[in-house]
Amino acid sequence: MEIGGWDDKLVWDNAPPEYLPDICERQCRFVIAHALMSPYVVLGRADVIYQGSDIYYVMIQLENQGFLPTYTGQKALERGAVKPIEVNLSLPSGVSLVSGQLKQNIKHLEGRSNKVTQLWAKQGTDYRCHVEWVIKGASGSEIEISAVGERSGTVCFRLQLDSRGT
Questions:
Q1: DSSP string, 113-166
Q2: In CATH, what is the architecture of 39-160?
């Protein structure tokens, strides 16, 4: 509140009608640009490699394609206000995990924001990570993987175990 109270004309009234379309257009563009800066985790790569005897090596690469890191701000990271990204592997019956974890937390992923001013000072791959498993199961079985980020969204996908190749 201002000293002396609100200036009702400046605070509570709309702009003249002829200015409203332009104001709304600019506000809409600002909100969309802001939303597009959000962290956005996607599946960058997935490999299922047959090792023989119904054993498969599974590797996924997760990437943050957003501008902001998955923790969105340094203070949130320092205060522990945002949980790490959780990766979950779901296996159908008859398929078992040889190595790796069904549920695991991975580090936060940087976005493009840390590359704007000091391109030479930041690691070039800090926006991606790899998660690996070794799985035993019959060819044709389908596994499901999900990655859940509190501020970066959820990505879910299915991979098929295939003994014919990679």
A1: GGGSS-TTTS-TTTTEEEEEEEEE--TT-EEEEEEEETTTEEEEEEEE--TT--
A2: Sandwich (2.60)
